[in-house]
Design a protein that fits this description.
Chain A: Pfam families: Cyclin_C, Cyclin_N. Chain A: InterPro entries: Cyclin, Cyclin-like_dom, Cyclin-like_sf, Cyclin_C-dom, Cyclin_N. Chain A: It comes from Glycine max (Soybean). Chain A: One of its GO terms (biological process) is cell division. The complex is a heterodimer of chains A (about 325) and B (about 300). Chain A is mainly α. Among the domains of chain A are: about 110 residues, Cyclin A, domain 1, CATH 1.10.472.10; about 100 residues, Cyclin A, domain 1, CATH 1.10.472. In chain A, about 70% of the residues lie in helices and about 0% in strands. In chain A, helix 3 packs across helix 5, helix 10 packs across helix 12 and helix 15 packs across helix 16. By secondary structure, chain B is of the alpha+beta class. Chain B has two domains: about 80 residues, Phosphorylase Kinase, domain 1; about 210 residues, Orthogonal Bundle (Transferase(Phosphotransferase), domain 1), CATH 1.10.510. In chain B, a hairpin with a 2-residue loop joins strand 1 and strand 2. In chain B, helix 3 packs antiparallel against helix 6 and helix 6 packs across helix 10. Chains A and B meet through strand 1, helix 1, helix 5, helix 6 and helix 7 of A and helix 2, strand 4, helix 3 and strand 7 of B.
């Protein structure tokens, strides 16, 4: 037996759609746990430290793998807190979450390479096999061995199809930007309790509002009309994600280019490079998405011309980028 | 948290690593899986195939699937607790002679198998290894149970270890046999396996039983005809060497091969055993086929 984690809606079985929306709560820290966690400041700081650790250790791997590992961490924390937040315990938890994520994904990485990576001498700690196995077993038990985590990525393609953008370049651009938003917002404790489908819908709306503001109203309607989505939850989640994006732009403006050592930037870099390799034609969009000045420039240009239709928009985006390049020379 | 022996009791050994046990007034089947003695995965914690298999089983809740109820760990051992199937459930259902006396029972069981496969496919779960040995039936209640590696087979070896088994080959689809070695399974392969089981229910013997992929393909083409670009677009690119195709053969008349089957049954069987995976009927459509009217 096996299942496809990344494309659960490949054939869009109506039964499959209902099923994933039905069970996604089982793979998300519940609302109650979210409130409980917020009451424990220690766990919040521990979570932040663990996420940073996971991002460091898995920066050479697929970003989706890192996302899955953090999902396991969140579900583990929701089930039971960490009684002894000692450095080696935190590292063991991080290593074990990554190890479990590697095993669940149909990854091409040889196990020995992953093991060597996880045991790199960054912290100077090397765990014995039995130690990792015990921690893995502990985490598996806490998660009731339900490791097929339903993440926002499971729903992105579905919503893009709802927006009528399936197989269109515009859909790919939106998907890339939404994925980036999903990756970055995972660290935010405020998103705990939102279902993966809500996060996916909100991230796509944020991406469309940012990249294609004229089409935004029709996209919003397409998603709101879906019987699988609670409109109110999307609005709340959308606001949180927008706040996160604003805070992020602010902090990145403060840090400037010199903060390339932080895990966030390392993850960004890997995300961009891997995506660039996959979709050569969409590199421009990703570049624009990351650079604030260029983004502002692009936004001003778009408001100036009343363009309609999907392809003309893509075309204009490229032209504007060329203009920006020429004006710099 | 209760320990193993506090939670379950009255252990009764069934086989080397399988026990019947009890909790309150309910019986369970418990399987022991050792997770430290794996040669392949000795240095990587809990083996990935165990995590994947259990993760899938935990998702499933269907009357025709043997249910995994609990998972407990104790040092190097894993204890899988399944629903208990009493003696009325007989393993390898095609060896049960009572099967052949009741044509309606065949239809009922076939429907339950297809319903289960459709349920799994809707959840993007592939069986890959469906065969009579994995199926248990209760003739009295006419309830069928598919043991997804939980009851009929242990977790003591990864899936790959079964790839060379003769029993497995009999239910492999032509597209899988063509690409033997690179396992690119998909949902049509499961439907093909059900088609083979359907044929076996009718003939009282395996539909295809060659010991190798070449011989199996020859048997398949003898019955269903050698595929062409017309009947299976893209087949020449899939077929690694022309040798696997053999000399061109014409399909036999299924009505003469299966005289006991009515036209609806023949139609369903031919669609499940369609050579081209893209044209093969899906499990979702198969359960709605006219053959099952009245089930």
């Amino acid at each position: 037996m096996e299942f496809d984690l990344e494309n659960p809606f490949e054939n869009l079985h109506s039964d499959a759609v209902s099923y994933l929306f039905l069970i996604e709560s089982d793979h998300t820290p519940s609302q109650n746990h979210s409130q409980t966690l917020k009451a424990r400041d220690l766990d919040i700081s521990v979570r932040r430290e663990l996420i940073s650790l996971i991002s460091q250790l898995s920066c050479a791997l697929d970003p989706v793998l890192s996302y899955l590992a953090i999902n396991y961490l969140d579900r583990f924390l929701a089930n039971q807190g960490i009684l002894q937040p000692k450095p080696w315990v935190l590292r063991l938890i991080a290593v074990s979450c990554i190890s479990l994520a590697v095993k669940m994904m149909r990854t091409e990485y040889p196990f020995t390479d992953v093991q060597a990576l996880l045991n790199q001498s960054d912290g100077g700690i090397i765990f014995e096999t039995q130690t990792i196995q015990r921690m893995e077993a502990l985490i598996l038990g806490a998660l009731q061995w339900r490791m097929r985590s339903i993440t926002p990525f499971s729903f992105v393609a579905f919503f893009i199809a709802l927006m009528g953008l399936k197989d269109l370049p515009m859909g790919q651009v939106l998907k890339n930007r939404a994925s980036e938003i999903i990756f970055k917002s995972q660290r935010e404790i405020r998103l705990w309790g939102f279902k993966p489908s809500i996060i996916a819908a909100s991230a796509l709306l944020c991406a469309s509002h940012e990249l294609f503001p004229f089409q935004y109203p029709s996209f919003l309607k397409a998603i709101s009309d879906s019987s699988y989505v609670n409109k109110e939850s999307v609005e709340q989640c959308y606001k949180v994600i927008q706040d996160i994006a604003i805070e992020e732009e602010y902090s990145s403006a403060l840090n400037g280019v010199s903060s390339s050592d932080t895990p966030i930037n390392v993850l960004d870099h890997h995300f961009l490079s891997s995506e660039s390799q996959k979709t050569n034609g969409i590199t421009v969009a990703n570049t624009i998405a990351v650079s604030s000045p260029l983004r502002d420039l692009k936004r001003r240009k778009i408001t100036g011309c009343g363009c309609g239709g999907n392809n003309p928009t893509i075309h204009n985006s490229r032209i504007q980028f060329s203009h920006a390049k020429e004006s710099e020379k | 948290m209760l320990t193993l022996r506090e939670k379950y009791y009255d252990f009764d050994q069934i086989s080397s690593k399988v026990f019947k046990c009890r909790r309150d007034d309910q019986f369970f089947t418990m399987k022991i899986v050792s997770i430290l003695n794996e040669e392949n995965q000795a240095n990587n914690g809990v083996p990935y195939w165990i995590i994947r298999e259990i993760s899938i089983l935990k998702e499933l809740d269907h009357i025709n699937i043997v249910r995994l109820i609990d998972v407990m760990t104790d040092g190097p051992d894993l204890f899988l607790v399944f629903e208990y199937l009493d003696n009325e459930f007989q393993a390898d259902f095609l060896k049960n002679p009572k099967m052949f006396m009741y044509p309606q029972m065949k239809k009922e069981f076939l429907y339950q198998i297809l319903n289960t496969v459709a349920y799994l496919h809707a959840r993007k779960i592939l069986l890959r290894d469906l065969r009579p040995e994995n199926i248990l039936v209760n003739v009295r209640t006419q309830v069928l149970k598919i043991a997804l590696f939980g009851a009929a087979r242990t977790f003591e070896a990864p899936l790959e270890a079964y790839s060379s088994s003769v029993g497995c080959l009999s239910y492999r689809s032509p597209e899988v046999l063509f690409q033997f070695g690179c396992e690119k399974y998909s949902t049509p392969n499961d439907v093909w396996a059900v088609g083979c089981i359907f044929g076996e229910m009718l003939l009282h013997r395996p539909l295809f039983s060659g010991p190798s992929d070449v011989e199996l393909l020859d048997e398949i083409f003898t019955l269903l005809g050698t595929p062409t670009e017309e009947t299976w677009p893209g087949v020449t690119s899939i077929c690694g060497t022309c040798a696997l195709m053999g000399p061109p053969q014409q399909p036999k008349d299924l009505a003469k091969e299966f005289p006991m089957l009515n036209p609806d049954g023949l139609d369903l069987l031919s669609k499940m055993l369609c050579l081209c995976p893209n044209y093969r009927i899906s499990a979702e459509d198969a359960v709605k086929h006219p053959y099952f009217k009245g089930v």
